[in-house]
Amino acid sequence: MAAKGWNARRGNKNHAQWTRSRHVVRSVDFESVEYVDPAEAVMPKEPPPEPVYKLKFLWLEKNIAVCVDQMLKKDNFSPMTEYFFWPRKDAWEELKEALDAKPWVSERDAVLLLNRTTEVINFWQEEGVKHSLAEAREKFPDCEFIGS
Fold first, then answer.
1. End-to-end CA distance of the chain
2. Are 47 and 61 a contacting pair, CB within 8 Å?
3. What is the pLDDT of residues 33-65, one digit of tens each?
4. What pTM was estimated for this model as a whole?
5. DSSP character for 113?
6. Whole-angstrom Cα distance, residue 61 to residue 89?
7. Cβ(41)–Cβ(22) under 8 Å?
8. Which of 44, 56, 71, 118 could cross-link 52 (Cys pair, CB 3.0–4.6 Å)?
9. Quick check: helix, strand or coil at residue 54?
10. Residues 68-97 as b or e (16 or more Cβ within 10 Å = b)
11. pLDDT tens-digit series, residues 68-119
């Protein structure tokens, strides 16, 4: 039984964690007890995973559109921006403003996304050459392409 003023949190029949004020008592079983001061306890901290972003392009005859998705879990993405169209509007500038408005997007990530957007737009509008969707997918495997 616990002494007066002690609280037991039971994980299972043979294990418990006892707490009192600032001290934590950890036990493997009820026979061996180790006292640990929380101020001295070292908890391993893993850095949070870096956000992963994916550029998505609508590959159209007279326009190209770009948006950014953020990865939530493996192969599970969530839209982060709407589609921005080029040359109808300045898609690059609109994308830059959208990324700047998201405080969790680092400057490094924003620059990488904008640089890749520039490369894809330049590839799409290359003079004298009409690139296919398959060529775009082959040249930029880190991006997703939808269209005709």
1. 72
2. no
3. 566 666 676 666 666 566 689 999 999 989 999
4. 0.65
5. H
6. 16
7. no
8. 71
9. strand
10. bbbbeeeeebeebbebbbbeeeebeebbbe
11. 999 888 778 899 999 999 998 899 999 999 999 999 999 999 999 999 999 9
